Amino acid sequence: MHLIKRFFPFILLTLILISCELYSDIDRAPLYQPTLSIHAFMSQHDIQAVVSYTHPRDTLEAQDVPDLPELEVWLTRNGQASHQLSAKGEGYYRLDSMDFETEQNYAIHVKDKTGRLVLESGSDQLPAVPKILSVRYVQDTTTIPETNVLRLELANPINKYHGFDVSTFYSIDSGTTFQNSRDSIYGIFRFRSLLKPTESSPDTLSTSIKTATFLRPEPGEPGIYINAVSVKVSHFSSGMMLFFEELKEAEQSFNEPFATRSPVYSNITGGYGVFGAYHAIDTVVFLER
Questions:
Q1: How many CB atoms lie within 10 A of CB 167?
Q2: Other CB atoms within 10 A of residue 239 CB
Q3: What is the pLDDT of residue 147?
Q4: Residue 116 included in any domain
Q5: Quick one: which of 62, 115, 111, 85 has its CA closest to 259?
């Protein structure tokens, strides 16, 4: 007993140090493990997929991200392999000039060169065509420069698992050419202003979108007033909507959404990623000055 009392401070200090080390291990990010991920988005006419390895959150003492192996990306329909996507670059695959159907179950399979299945998505369906009920342009001339707003009304599907993305493209040559005024991480999608169906109005889903007033053809040149806006409305499936909803909320998601402490929604087995479908339509609004 005397011996225990004599060494008790040392024992207590050792326990404290061990506890601190254990806590530190819990708080520290897990060691980086290279994991395949895929982003695959299907519209009514094409499908694009990007396969990559996840990147480490902390580059200190992290192992290098390996090179991609030789892979095949397949689209399945109702459980049967239907089309192989063409490789268009390292990790980039595409299948276009197609006509995909609603009410069919589509999924993505990724195989290595031996034919072994390495990634498999959950199934998703192509949503119905979005229906634009009205779109009109409102200009507030009391501000400098004037403020442009598009008022948009869509048919409300009242499906809590679906949603809409609205993207705008601007023209300064009366609709001959259009350009997006902003950079986007995930293609053309805004994903910070998603529209959810609501039961407050059983028939319509309304929104107001602030648009740009002018564009500069080149940096440093004077701005030219916009005279046409192309509005792209995309009806998102449940897979698309769940992914983008969590993506816009994840603080650390924009560089590597699947390597954070709380990875965003993933419907991929064997790795990380998302497969989702959307149905898109376009309309052009000409702005009169």
A1: 21
A2: 25
A3: 82
A4: no
A5: 62
Residue 249 structural domain: 132-286
Rg, C-alpha atoms of the chain: 25
> How many domains does the structure of the chain reveal?
1
Buried b (16+ CB within 10 A) or exposed e, 244-255: bbbbeebeebee
Token pair for residue 82? 């239907």
Please give the pLDDT value at position 195: 80
- Could you tell me which residues are beta bridge partners of residue 175? none
d(CA 269, CA 54): 15
Give a yes or no: residue 36 inside a domain. no
Q: Which of 255, 207, 236, 225 is nearest to 54 (CA)?
A: 255
Tell me if 88 is assigned to some domain: no
Look-up: residue for tokens 């004037």?
A: 146
For 14, 19, 45, 124, the CA distances from 5, given in Å and listed in that order, are 15, 21, 78, 67
Distance (Å, whole) CA 236 – CA 245: 11
Within a domain: residue 49? no
Q: Provide the percentage of residues in the chain whose pLDDT is more than 90.
A: 26
C-beta atoms surrounding 268 within 10 Å: 22
168 pLDDT band, cuts 50/70/90, is: confident
What is the rounded CA–CA span in Å between residue 66 and residue 219?
A: 38
Backbone angles phi and psi of 8, in degrees to 5: -60, -45
| Cα–Cα distance measured from residue 72 to residue 32, given in angstroms and rounded to the nearest whole number | 25
Give the ranges where the chain is alpha helix by DSSP (H).
2-27, 238-249
Query: Which phi and psi angles does 161 have, rounded to 5°?
Result: -90, -10
Residue that has been written with the tokens 């329909």 in this structure? 77
Q: Are 289 and 225 in contact (CB under 8 A)?
A: yes
